[in-house]
Amino acid sequence: MRLRKITEPVFERLIKICGYSSGFIVLLIVIFLFKEGISFFNLSPVDEGSTLWVHNSNPVKELDAAQIKDIFDQKIDNWKAIGGNDQPIELFTLDELGEAFTAEQLGPKFEYLPKCIDSYMDSLPGAIGFFPEKQTVGLLKSAKEVEVDKVSFSTFISDTEWFPTSRPAARMGIMPLLLGTLLVSFFAILFALPLGLAASIYLAEIADDRVRKILKPIIELLAGIPSVVYGFFGLVVIVPFVQNTFNLPVGETALAGSIVLAIMALPTIITVSEDALRTTPRAMKEASLALGASQWQTIRKVIVPYAASGITAAAILGIGRAIGETMAALMVTGNSAIMPHSLLQPVRTIPATIAAELGEAPFGGLHFKALFALGCILFIITLIINLLVERVSAKRR
Amino acid sequence: MSNKIETIDVNLHYGDFHALKDISLGIPENSVTALIGPSGCGKSTYLRLFNRMNDLIPETRITGKVLLDGENIYKIKATKIDALRRNVGMVFQKPNPFPKSIFENVAYGLRVNGITDKSFIEGQVEKTLHQAALWDEVKDKLKKSAFELSGGQQQRLCIARALAIEPSIILMDEPASALDPISTGKIEDLIFELKSEFTIVIVTHNMQQAGRVSDYTGFFYLGSLIEFGKTRKIFTNPSKQETENYISGRFG
Ligand SMILES: Nc1ncnc2c1ncn2[C@@H]1O[C@H](COP(=O)(O)OP(=O)(O)O)[C@@H](O)[C@H]1O
Ligand SMILES: [Mg+2]
């Protein structure tokens, strides 16, 4: 009795501390994610410590990341295309410098480098140069620095190219990743929902107790299998299947991703909607049957409508599972960050992108921060999904 | 008067539990038959024999004969069970309208039985809502959810719903037990109205109610039918001691 008086408040306090600290940790993670993610915006897409130069006579003052990439990919080869004079564009980087000047001219410690750059730029009015800041800033007379548009939220969202490591300027448009994620998830749910609904109706209404007692734990077990195992299964079974069926050069496609994610979302959909179907009161079923409705009519007209909000919640949870899934998506979707046009081409999802690229992105750099911003987007999407689930199930009560 | 329903030596087991014991009984046509007895004595189980509702409960075994218009309903094909249930309407203990509109609740039985004629359905809905003495209260809100009605209204809606498919038998399992006295009175009046057209079997644990509404009464005790006869006779001059004890309120 005395002991209880002492231990109970202690436990109460411990539980309180656990509650507060876990909430605090979640909050910290979110703050950290958004702090890193938001600091990505208003950075320059050009490598830190480097600058772009054009000839003094060139009227072009400002370029954006897309234009810079096209120039250095030689897709744009005349200044006229981007508002300059009718003049071919000459690319000029340290490589060209090495060819144009000898080692003596550059000096043993590259101390004449700025002078060489200057004279080279001077001789080529159509040149665009890309050099380290400390060899150039304040040292060139023939050239002027080009202003580069900062990374903005609107280009981040709407740009259709994802080349985070391209130089001189990275292109970070998440459109292909976002669409890839949505495409794969949408079709995953399109495949999984009818199947899952059918299975849950079977379990809740048709299967007899013995069958249910075997099937239910198996389905619940499926939810616990690590995603890398699903990915492996997808790689060995689904990918070759897709490749052979559609006669494709590669089987790693959005379709393969959708199928694997559908299989992964099934257990969630089945268990959640089965629970919902079971909430239909027996009185409701009996009322229907007593009016001469068949079992199928009763399922269709009474049981499923009664469980509709639960089934919706199941579907949304399934979508959430598919959108956030990383490993399996990484393994079977082919991971090419291009705008998806069909199910039969490789795509890349947001979580797969983060997982694949975070390791090689320099810590704290532009690419690193871009991945955090991507994480924020994913967080917002899943947050919306969770809120939807909340709303739908609140309606049920 | 001929018997609409007849059971001969019916036994029912829920798994190991012997719930109905050798019940033989004839229920006369176009009359009200009350089944009374202490709770757990098998009244509902017996009632649910007539529309094969017990079939839904796993591990139920039934022996003996249940004749409806002379046909053993436990020998019919599985595909004919729906037709049987169309002929045997049921009103449950707690009002159990569907989460649909008032109109759709009543129309449900017609729709699931393949009737699509809109004006027929509308006519039938109006007619049975009148029969259930509910029309005046709901005629302006047929599109509203059935859940907006009071408990007593819901139960009358369930009666209208059962009437809409024009059964010849109506089973009622303690239809007023969840209702207030005024609603109960309305339901009892309704039963009185309906008996010219239907054969009604009503389970009740309310003795006064059985006395008021029924022509015949059967007294069940521990799964057996103890006594059956004209209600007046059962209530004034029962032939079995158990019946008398129960009626006089000495147990139950
Ligand atoms: N589904 C069932 N499974 C097992 N036993 C049941 C089931 N339904 C009813 N019983 C039992 O059968 C007996 C009769 O039940 P019931 O017909 O509901 O009684 P009443 O309606 O007279 O109160 C009770 O003892 C009850 O416990
Ligand atoms: Mg009962």
What keyword list fits this structure?
heterodimer; A: alpha/beta; D-Maltodextrin-Binding Protein, domain 2; MetI-like fold; 2 domains; 4-stranded mixed sheet; 62% helix; 7% strand; B: 252 residues; alpha/beta; Rossmann fold; 6-stranded mixed sheet; 10 helices; 35% helix; binds adenosine-5'-diphosphate; binds magnesium ion
Describe the model.
- The complex is a heterodimer of chains A (397) and B (252).
- With 397 residues, chain A is an alpha/beta fold.
- Helices cover 62% and strands 7% of the residues of chain A.
- Chain A has helices spanning 2-38, 65-72, 94-100, 103-106, 113-123, 153-158, 175-206, 209-224, 227-245, 254-278, 282-290, 295-306, 308-324, 327-332, 350-357, 366-396, and strands spanning 50-55, 62-63, 90-92, 127-132, 143-145, 147-148, 162-163, 171-172.
- In chain A, strands 3-4-1-5 form a four-stranded mixed sheet.
- In chain A, helix 7 packs across helix 13 (308-324).
- Chain A is elongated and about 95 Å long.
- Chain A starts with a helix and ends with a helix.
- The mean pLDDT of chain A is 88.
- Chain B has one domain (3-247): 3-Layer(aba) Sandwich (Rossmann fold).
- Chain B is 35% helix and 27% strand.
- Chain B is built from ten helices and ten strands.
- Chain B has helices spanning 43-47, 81-87, 102-112, 118-131, 135-138, 151-164, 181-194, 207-213, 231-236, 241-247, and strands spanning 3-14, 17-28, 32-36, 60-68, 71-72, 88-91, 169-173, 199-203, 216-221, 224-230.
- Classes of the chains: A alpha/beta (397), B alpha/beta (252).
- The complex binds adenosine-5'-diphosphate (ADP) and magnesium ion.
- Magnesium ion binds next to helix 1 of chain B.
